[in-house]
Amino acid sequence: MENKEIMIEVHDLRKDFKKTIKEPGLKGSFKALFKPKHEIISAVDGISFQVPKGEIIGFIGPNGAGKSTVIKMLTGILTPTSGECRIGGKIPTQNRKEYVKEIGVVFGQRTQLWWDLALRETYMVLKEIYEIPDEDYEKRMKFLNEVLELDDFITSPVRTLSLGQRMRADIAASLLHNPKVLFLDEPTIGLDVVVKDSIRKAIQKINQENGTTVILTTHDLEDIELLCERIVMIDKGKKVFDGPLSELKMRFGQMRELHFELKDADSFEILKYSEDFSFGEEDLTVDKNGSEVNVRFNSDTVSVEQMLSYTLSKVHVKDINVKDADIEEIIRRLYLGGGNLIEETSQTV
After folding, report:
1. Under a CB-based contact definition with an 8 Å cutoff, are residues 47 and 239 in contact?
2. Distance from CA of residue 206 to its chain's centroid?
3. The pTM is what?
4. Cα–Cα dist 68/75, whole Å
Protein backbone atom coordinates (compact mmCIF):
# COMPACT_ATOMS: atom_id res chain seq x y z
CA MET A 1 0.00 0.00 0.00
CA GLU A 2 2.93 2.33 0.71
CA ASN A 3 3.89 2.22 -3.00
CA LYS A 4 0.50 3.47 -4.14
CA GLU A 5 -0.30 7.12 -4.73
CA ILE A 6 -2.32 8.51 -1.82
CA MET A 7 -5.53 10.10 -3.07
CA ILE A 8 -7.21 11.04 0.24
CA GLU A 9 -5.36 12.22 3.35
CA VAL A 10 -7.22 12.94 6.57
CA HIS A 11 -5.22 14.05 9.59
CA ASP A 12 -6.66 14.67 13.07
CA LEU A 13 -9.94 15.93 11.60
CA ARG A 14 -12.35 17.49 14.06
CA LYS A 15 -15.72 19.21 13.80
CA ASP A 16 -17.41 20.86 16.77
CA PHE A 17 -20.91 22.33 16.82
CA LYS A 18 -22.21 24.87 19.32
CA LYS A 19 -25.55 23.85 20.77
CA THR A 20 -27.78 26.27 22.71
CA ILE A 21 -29.16 24.77 25.91
CA LYS A 22 -32.74 25.84 26.48
CA GLU A 23 -34.61 25.33 29.73
CA PRO A 24 -38.30 24.38 29.49
CA GLY A 25 -41.15 26.91 29.46
CA LEU A 26 -41.44 30.63 28.68
CA LYS A 27 -38.82 31.53 31.25
CA GLY A 28 -36.38 29.19 29.60
CA SER A 29 -37.08 30.78 26.21
CA PHE A 30 -36.28 34.28 27.55
CA LYS A 31 -33.08 33.06 29.22
CA ALA A 32 -31.99 31.35 26.01
CA LEU A 33 -32.65 34.60 24.12
CA PHE A 34 -30.83 37.04 26.43
CA LYS A 35 -28.36 34.85 28.37
CA PRO A 36 -27.92 31.75 26.27
CA LYS A 37 -25.92 28.82 27.58
CA HIS A 38 -23.97 26.83 25.05
CA GLU A 39 -22.62 23.31 24.88
CA ILE A 40 -19.91 22.16 22.47
CA ILE A 41 -20.75 18.92 20.65
CA SER A 42 -17.90 17.05 18.96
CA ALA A 43 -19.44 15.39 15.92
CA VAL A 44 -16.02 14.30 14.66
CA ASP A 45 -13.22 13.85 17.15
CA GLY A 46 -9.69 13.59 15.76
CA ILE A 47 -10.10 11.14 12.86
CA SER A 48 -7.11 10.23 10.68
CA PHE A 49 -6.82 7.88 7.69
CA GLN A 50 -5.44 7.63 4.17
CA VAL A 51 -6.94 6.17 1.01
CA PRO A 52 -4.69 5.12 -1.89
CA LYS A 53 -5.71 5.90 -5.46
CA GLY A 54 -8.14 3.38 -6.95
CA GLU A 55 -9.30 1.86 -3.66
CA ILE A 56 -12.94 1.27 -2.66
CA ILE A 57 -13.28 1.92 1.06
CA GLY A 58 -16.34 1.20 3.20
CA PHE A 59 -17.02 4.04 5.63
CA ILE A 60 -19.45 2.76 8.24
CA GLY A 61 -20.85 3.43 11.68
CA PRO A 62 -24.15 3.61 13.59
CA ASN A 63 -26.58 6.49 13.15
CA GLY A 64 -25.12 9.65 14.70
CA ALA A 65 -21.55 8.34 14.53
CA GLY A 66 -20.34 11.30 12.44
CA LYS A 67 -20.13 9.67 8.99
CA SER A 68 -22.10 12.34 7.15
CA THR A 69 -20.14 15.12 8.86
CA VAL A 70 -16.86 13.58 7.69
CA ILE A 71 -18.19 13.24 4.13
CA LYS A 72 -19.37 16.86 4.17
CA MET A 73 -15.89 18.00 5.22
CA LEU A 74 -14.25 15.83 2.54
CA THR A 75 -16.52 17.28 -0.12
CA GLY A 76 -15.99 20.86 1.09
CA ILE A 77 -19.55 21.48 2.33
CA LEU A 78 -18.33 21.93 5.92
CA THR A 79 -15.11 23.50 7.18
CA PRO A 80 -13.26 21.49 9.87
CA THR A 81 -12.88 22.99 13.33
CA SER A 82 -9.30 21.70 13.29
CA GLY A 83 -7.18 19.16 11.48
CA GLU A 84 -6.76 18.80 7.76
CA CYS A 85 -8.04 16.81 4.79
CA ARG A 86 -6.62 16.76 1.29
CA ILE A 87 -8.07 15.04 -1.77
CA GLY A 88 -5.71 14.76 -4.72
CA GLY A 89 -3.47 17.27 -2.96
CA LYS A 90 -6.26 19.86 -2.73
CA ILE A 91 -7.95 21.20 0.40
CA PRO A 92 -11.74 20.89 -0.20
CA THR A 93 -12.72 24.26 1.26
CA GLN A 94 -10.16 26.11 -0.87
CA ASN A 95 -10.20 26.56 -4.65
CA ARG A 96 -13.73 25.15 -4.71
CA LYS A 97 -14.19 25.51 -8.47
CA GLU A 98 -11.12 23.44 -9.26
CA TYR A 99 -11.77 20.93 -6.49
CA VAL A 100 -15.36 20.01 -7.39
CA LYS A 101 -14.26 19.13 -10.93
CA GLU A 102 -12.28 16.26 -9.45
CA ILE A 103 -14.99 14.68 -7.28
CA GLY A 104 -18.40 13.10 -7.78
CA VAL A 105 -21.02 12.84 -5.04
CA VAL A 106 -24.17 10.71 -4.85
CA PHE A 107 -26.61 11.00 -1.95
CA GLY A 108 -29.08 8.12 -1.92
CA GLN A 109 -32.02 10.20 -0.72
CA ARG A 110 -31.31 13.34 -2.78
CA THR A 111 -30.84 13.97 -6.45
CA GLN A 112 -28.71 16.39 -8.46
CA LEU A 113 -30.94 15.93 -11.53
CA TRP A 114 -33.42 18.51 -12.86
CA TRP A 115 -36.89 17.18 -12.09
CA ASP A 116 -38.72 18.24 -15.27
CA LEU A 117 -35.91 17.88 -17.79
CA ALA A 118 -35.39 14.76 -19.86
CA LEU A 119 -32.36 12.87 -18.58
CA ARG A 120 -30.38 13.47 -21.78
CA GLU A 121 -30.95 17.23 -21.47
CA THR A 122 -29.85 17.12 -17.81
CA TYR A 123 -26.57 15.56 -18.90
CA MET A 124 -26.14 18.26 -21.56
CA VAL A 125 -26.53 20.93 -18.87
CA LEU A 126 -23.92 19.17 -16.70
CA LYS A 127 -21.61 18.96 -19.73
CA GLU A 128 -21.66 22.75 -19.99
CA ILE A 129 -21.26 23.26 -16.24
CA TYR A 130 -18.18 21.02 -16.13
CA GLU A 131 -16.90 22.34 -19.49
CA ILE A 132 -16.52 18.84 -20.92
CA PRO A 133 -15.25 18.79 -24.54
CA ASP A 134 -17.66 17.24 -27.08
CA GLU A 135 -15.40 14.28 -27.87
CA ASP A 136 -14.84 13.44 -24.19
CA TYR A 137 -18.56 13.77 -23.50
CA GLU A 138 -19.49 11.32 -26.27
CA LYS A 139 -16.93 8.75 -25.06
CA ARG A 140 -18.04 9.14 -21.47
CA MET A 141 -21.75 8.79 -22.29
CA LYS A 142 -21.06 5.66 -24.34
CA PHE A 143 -19.20 4.11 -21.40
CA LEU A 144 -21.87 5.09 -18.85
CA ASN A 145 -24.65 3.76 -21.10
CA GLU A 146 -22.88 0.40 -21.27
CA VAL A 147 -22.19 0.20 -17.54
CA LEU A 148 -25.43 1.63 -16.14
CA GLU A 149 -27.85 0.76 -18.99
CA LEU A 150 -29.26 4.26 -19.38
CA ASP A 151 -30.62 3.92 -22.93
CA ASP A 152 -34.04 2.62 -21.86
CA PHE A 153 -34.93 5.85 -20.03
CA ILE A 154 -32.46 8.53 -21.17
CA THR A 155 -35.21 10.43 -23.05
CA SER A 156 -37.63 10.35 -20.08
CA PRO A 157 -38.17 13.28 -17.69
CA VAL A 158 -36.44 12.69 -14.37
CA ARG A 159 -39.77 12.88 -12.48
CA THR A 160 -41.03 9.78 -14.35
CA LEU A 161 -38.06 7.57 -13.40
CA SER A 162 -38.33 4.75 -10.89
CA LEU A 163 -36.08 4.83 -7.82
CA GLY A 164 -33.66 2.35 -9.37
CA GLN A 165 -33.50 4.28 -12.65
CA ARG A 166 -33.00 7.58 -10.82
CA MET A 167 -30.16 6.11 -8.77
CA ARG A 168 -28.38 4.87 -11.89
CA ALA A 169 -28.97 8.26 -13.52
CA ASP A 170 -27.52 10.04 -10.45
CA ILE A 171 -24.41 7.86 -10.47
CA ALA A 172 -23.93 8.60 -14.17
CA ALA A 173 -24.34 12.34 -13.53
CA SER A 174 -21.67 12.23 -10.82
CA LEU A 175 -19.27 10.42 -13.18
CA LEU A 176 -19.86 12.47 -16.33
CA HIS A 177 -16.80 14.65 -15.75
CA ASN A 178 -14.60 11.61 -14.94
CA PRO A 179 -13.84 12.49 -11.30
CA LYS A 180 -10.83 11.12 -9.47
CA VAL A 181 -12.88 10.43 -6.33
CA LEU A 182 -16.49 9.26 -6.01
CA PHE A 183 -18.40 9.66 -2.74
CA LEU A 184 -21.40 7.33 -2.50
CA ASP A 185 -23.81 7.86 0.40
CA GLU A 186 -26.33 4.97 0.61
CA PRO A 187 -26.38 4.34 -3.17
CA THR A 188 -28.57 1.20 -2.89
CA ILE A 189 -31.05 2.38 -0.25
CA GLY A 190 -34.62 1.26 -0.96
CA LEU A 191 -33.71 -0.63 -4.14
CA ASP A 192 -34.74 -4.16 -5.06
CA VAL A 193 -32.21 -7.00 -5.27
CA VAL A 194 -31.82 -6.91 -9.08
CA VAL A 195 -31.15 -3.15 -9.22
CA LYS A 196 -28.78 -3.34 -6.24
CA ASP A 197 -26.77 -6.02 -8.02
CA SER A 198 -26.66 -3.90 -11.18
CA ILE A 199 -25.38 -0.84 -9.33
CA ARG A 200 -22.76 -2.84 -7.43
CA LYS A 201 -21.42 -4.29 -10.69
CA ALA A 202 -21.36 -0.80 -12.20
CA ILE A 203 -19.35 0.57 -9.26
CA GLN A 204 -16.86 -2.30 -9.56
CA LYS A 205 -16.44 -1.77 -13.31
CA ILE A 206 -16.01 1.99 -12.98
CA ASN A 207 -13.40 1.45 -10.28
CA GLN A 208 -11.49 -1.20 -12.27
CA GLU A 209 -11.54 0.51 -15.67
CA ASN A 210 -11.04 4.13 -14.59
CA GLY A 211 -9.13 3.69 -11.33
CA THR A 212 -11.74 5.84 -9.57
CA THR A 213 -11.25 6.06 -5.81
CA VAL A 214 -14.55 5.34 -4.03
CA ILE A 215 -15.72 6.10 -0.50
CA LEU A 216 -18.89 4.14 0.19
CA THR A 217 -21.13 5.02 3.13
CA THR A 218 -23.88 2.48 3.65
CA HIS A 219 -26.00 0.56 6.14
CA ASP A 220 -26.38 -2.28 3.64
CA LEU A 221 -23.59 -4.55 4.79
CA GLU A 222 -23.88 -6.67 1.65
CA ASP A 223 -22.57 -3.61 -0.23
CA ILE A 224 -19.52 -3.66 2.04
CA GLU A 225 -18.87 -7.39 1.63
CA LEU A 226 -19.20 -7.33 -2.16
CA LEU A 227 -17.37 -4.07 -2.92
CA CYS A 228 -14.86 -3.28 -0.18
CA GLU A 229 -11.66 -4.97 0.94
CA ARG A 230 -11.07 -2.31 3.60
CA ILE A 231 -13.37 -0.54 6.01
CA VAL A 232 -13.10 2.46 8.30
CA MET A 233 -15.57 2.30 11.16
CA ILE A 234 -16.40 5.27 13.36
CA ASP A 235 -18.51 5.59 16.48
CA LYS A 236 -19.29 8.71 18.54
CA GLY A 237 -17.03 10.77 16.30
CA LYS A 238 -13.96 8.56 16.80
CA LYS A 239 -12.35 6.02 14.53
CA VAL A 240 -12.66 2.57 16.09
CA PHE A 241 -11.39 0.36 13.28
CA ASP A 242 -9.37 0.85 10.10
CA GLY A 243 -8.20 -2.17 8.21
CA PRO A 244 -9.04 -5.02 5.85
CA LEU A 245 -12.48 -6.57 6.10
CA SER A 246 -10.76 -9.96 6.38
CA GLU A 247 -8.93 -8.79 9.52
CA LEU A 248 -12.18 -7.63 11.12
CA LYS A 249 -13.69 -11.04 10.45
CA MET A 250 -10.60 -12.85 11.72
CA ARG A 251 -10.34 -10.85 14.95
CA PHE A 252 -13.99 -10.39 15.80
CA GLY A 253 -15.84 -13.08 13.89
CA GLN A 254 -16.09 -15.41 16.87
CA MET A 255 -19.78 -16.04 16.27
CA ARG A 256 -20.61 -19.25 14.42
CA GLU A 257 -23.91 -20.63 13.23
CA LEU A 258 -24.68 -24.32 13.73
CA HIS A 259 -27.54 -25.46 11.53
CA PHE A 260 -29.02 -28.95 11.68
CA GLU A 261 -32.17 -30.94 10.95
CA LEU A 262 -33.49 -33.27 13.64
CA LYS A 263 -34.73 -36.77 12.83
CA ASP A 264 -37.15 -36.40 15.72
CA ALA A 265 -38.34 -32.80 16.28
CA ASP A 266 -39.44 -33.60 19.86
CA SER A 267 -35.88 -34.50 20.85
CA PHE A 268 -35.02 -30.77 20.72
CA GLU A 269 -35.97 -30.50 24.42
CA ILE A 270 -32.89 -32.58 25.32
CA LEU A 271 -30.58 -29.85 24.03
CA LYS A 272 -29.83 -27.46 26.89
CA TYR A 273 -26.98 -25.35 25.57
CA SER A 274 -27.52 -22.46 27.99
CA GLU A 275 -27.54 -24.81 31.02
CA ASP A 276 -24.68 -27.09 30.00
CA PHE A 277 -22.34 -24.31 28.83
CA SER A 278 -21.39 -20.94 30.34
CA PHE A 279 -22.65 -18.66 27.59
CA GLY A 280 -23.17 -14.95 28.22
CA GLU A 281 -26.42 -13.21 27.30
CA GLU A 282 -25.15 -12.12 23.86
CA ASP A 283 -23.21 -15.33 23.18
CA LEU A 284 -26.03 -17.72 22.33
CA THR A 285 -29.30 -17.70 20.40
CA VAL A 286 -31.26 -20.83 19.52
CA ASP A 287 -34.08 -20.82 16.95
CA LYS A 288 -36.25 -23.81 16.02
CA ASN A 289 -38.63 -24.11 13.08
CA GLY A 290 -40.17 -27.57 12.94
CA SER A 291 -37.25 -29.99 12.75
CA GLU A 292 -34.83 -27.24 11.61
CA VAL A 293 -32.58 -25.74 14.32
CA ASN A 294 -30.20 -22.76 14.14
CA VAL A 295 -27.75 -22.21 16.98
CA ARG A 296 -25.63 -19.05 16.89
CA PHE A 297 -22.84 -19.16 19.47
CA ASN A 298 -19.59 -17.52 20.49
CA SER A 299 -16.79 -19.93 19.55
CA ASP A 300 -14.43 -18.14 21.99
CA THR A 301 -16.65 -19.39 24.81
CA VAL A 302 -17.33 -22.88 23.46
CA SER A 303 -15.41 -24.29 20.50
CA VAL A 304 -17.04 -25.52 17.31
CA GLU A 305 -15.75 -29.01 18.09
CA GLN A 306 -17.41 -28.97 21.53
CA MET A 307 -20.73 -27.77 20.11
CA LEU A 308 -20.72 -30.44 17.41
CA SER A 309 -19.78 -33.21 19.84
CA TYR A 310 -22.43 -32.11 22.34
CA THR A 311 -25.19 -31.87 19.72
CA LEU A 312 -24.41 -35.22 18.08
CA SER A 313 -24.20 -36.95 21.45
CA LYS A 314 -27.66 -35.70 22.46
CA VAL A 315 -29.81 -36.00 19.32
CA HIS A 316 -30.03 -37.76 15.97
CA VAL A 317 -29.67 -35.41 13.03
CA LYS A 318 -30.31 -35.78 9.29
CA ASP A 319 -27.86 -33.07 8.29
CA ILE A 320 -25.57 -30.61 10.04
CA ASN A 321 -23.26 -27.75 9.03
CA VAL A 322 -21.39 -24.82 10.55
CA LYS A 323 -21.13 -21.32 9.05
CA ASP A 324 -18.83 -18.42 9.93
CA ALA A 325 -20.35 -15.21 11.19
CA ASP A 326 -21.33 -12.74 8.48
CA ILE A 327 -20.22 -9.10 8.56
CA GLU A 328 -23.61 -7.94 9.82
CA GLU A 329 -23.32 -10.10 12.93
CA ILE A 330 -19.76 -8.94 13.61
CA ILE A 331 -20.63 -5.26 13.33
CA ARG A 332 -23.80 -5.70 15.38
CA ARG A 333 -21.71 -7.10 18.25
CA LEU A 334 -19.16 -4.31 17.92
CA TYR A 335 -21.89 -1.67 18.06
CA LEU A 336 -23.34 -3.30 21.17
CA GLY A 337 -19.87 -3.08 22.70
CA GLY A 338 -19.75 0.64 21.94
CA GLY A 339 -16.53 0.28 19.97
CA ASN A 340 -14.48 -0.55 23.08
CA LEU A 341 -13.67 -4.01 21.76
CA ILE A 342 -11.74 -2.66 18.82
CA GLU A 343 -10.28 0.63 20.00
CA GLU A 344 -6.83 -0.88 20.47
CA THR A 345 -6.71 -2.22 16.92
CA SER A 346 -7.41 1.11 15.24
CA GLN A 347 -4.73 2.01 12.75
CA THR A 348 -4.01 4.51 10.04
CA VAL A 349 -3.29 2.66 6.83
Report:
1. yes
2. 18
3. 0.74
4. 10
